Amino acid sequence: MAEVKVDVSKLKNYINGEWVEGDKHTDVINPATGEAVVEVPLSSAKSVDDAVKAAKAAQKEWALVPAPERAEVLYRVGDLMKERKEEIAQLLTLENGKVIEEARGEVQEGIDMAYYMAGEGRRLFGQTTPSELRNKFAMSVRSPLGVVGIITPWNFPIAIATWKSFPAIVSGNAVVWKPATETPIMAHELVKIFESAGLPKGVINVVYGSGSEVGDAMVHHDGIRVISFTGSNDVGRDIAGKCGQQLKKVSLEMGGKNAVIVMDDADLNLAVEGILWSAFGTSGQRCTACSRVIVHEDVKEELEKRLLEEMKSLTIGNGLDSSVKVGPVINKGSLEKINSYIDIAKNEGAKLVAGGSIMNEGEYANGNYFEPTLFTDVKPDMRIALEEVFGPVLSLIPVKSFEEAIEVNNSVTYGLSSSIFTKDVNRVFAAQRDLDTGIVYVNAGTTGAEIHLPFGGTKGTGNGHRDSGVQALDVFTEWKAIYVDYSGKLQRAQIDNN
Ligand code: NAP
Ligand code: MG
Questions:
Q1: Which of 100, 141, 344, 378 lies 20 to 30 Å from 51 when distance is taken between CA atoms?
Q2: pLDDT tens, 14-67?
Q3: Is residue 496 one of the residues assigned to a domain?
Q4: What's the pTM?
Q5: Whole-number pLDDT of residue 1
Q6: Which of 250, 254, 258 to mutate to test the pocket of ligand 1 (most atoms within 8 A of CB)?
Q7: Alpha-carbon Rg for the chain in angstroms
Q8: Ligand 1 binding pocket mutation candidate from 106, 154, 208 (most atoms within 8 A of CB)
Q9: Do residue 338 and residue 398 come from a single domain?
Q10: CA 26 vs CA 4, 126, 148, 366, 433: distances in Å
Q11: Are 438 and 465 in contact (CB under 8 A)?
């Protein structure tokens, strides 16, 4: 197994291009071993204020740098991430626990995002459009907002940060970023890369600390024009209320209760592969993880049999061991939460057919390991079928028809990702139209988003914004409509031409 170490023993905030030591600290724990790997500052509102002041000053100048020149920094960021991909991936596994192959994939997502958003430096398209008046010119352009606040979760500690910071920076904003306290090492690495790439001081600032202290100070700071948040629904709802009161722009990406639909004509082997990957990859801790399989009753028994068979091949352990398929979950609190759903499901009448326990013997004793778990005969209105568990726990829900499958998929409060396995082209198109989620897969599991498409969900998953894709620019820019009258006289719209 690779020997991985952080290059410092204490992480520091990064404010105005300086590494600033914190007063109080807490340990970052490797979820695979329970060992402390580095200390992270627990900062206060004062650090947020310092970061906003630095960002505000830097943004004035940064906004005047031509966008193609701003993009040059992102090209260099992409190159540096590519050079250091393996090292960053190992550090990601160290702090987050996900298996190394998936960590490499996550770093690659950041590299892709760097080049894609660098390309936006030569686009950032607005529109020109005719004016209704003679000798008048009309257009719309994107303007930066100023200082943007980014709050990110632990489950994709580098990818989500790139989805947010890269579009923000290429469009001329400065950033104050609060990473999740569980996974601060990715912020340390990404900031070092920004520094080497020549990003001017103050354009990105990192303040470590708890959500209730640092996150809340960002939400309330009147120097921050937009909050871009990814995390849980409870926190997102709370932030939305506070931003609403201040008329502050807010973009929220939150939880999911994603389903794979397996129809009676599906390729069952392919469906099993897709389900295993999206349910147990990242130990079920992806916002797009599959936690429900909605299966046609005619193939339910066969699918269940094959799933149980294949689940036996899921090796569990430290993600740095490349033979491991399922790593630990993030922390003890998560482990307890996942475990609590086992009794909840059993008490509601769901049938446990695999897993269902915390693993705390032998090599698993110090890490946060939970057995890959399968419930069957689950009813759509049981809590296990409605609430986000965020662990390696899957429920099989039998249905009688295509129409019922769509209805069950759409019956949850979330709307992030969905998938259908079928060979019937008519069902494919009807499903694309009727599945009420922001992401739909056909003949693939519920995970695997590509960075040049919009990422986000309907209903309780978000508030209508999207991360990644060209759509991300809408979060970090304001549309400005510009009219140029070259007639030399006063022309009144809607009046002089009617
Ligand atoms: P979380 O507990 O909501 O935390 C997310 C971030 O918000 C962390 O940085 C956290 O800081 C901070 N925070 C906590 N309380 C806050 C407050 N009162 N004000 C401001 N910030 C606050 O979520 P998580 O447990 O890290 O992540 C898992 C959740 O994220 C799941 O629900 C998952 O579905 C969702 N997720 C969604 C997407 C998507 O794009 N839809 C992607 C990935 C994950 P501290 O933790 O440091 O205190
Ligand atoms: Mg949390």
A1: 141
A2: 999 999 999 999 999 999 999 999 999 999 999 999 999 999 999 999 999 999
A3: no
A4: 0.98
A5: 79
A6: 254
A7: 24
A8: 154
A9: yes
A10: 20, 46, 26, 19, 48
A11: no
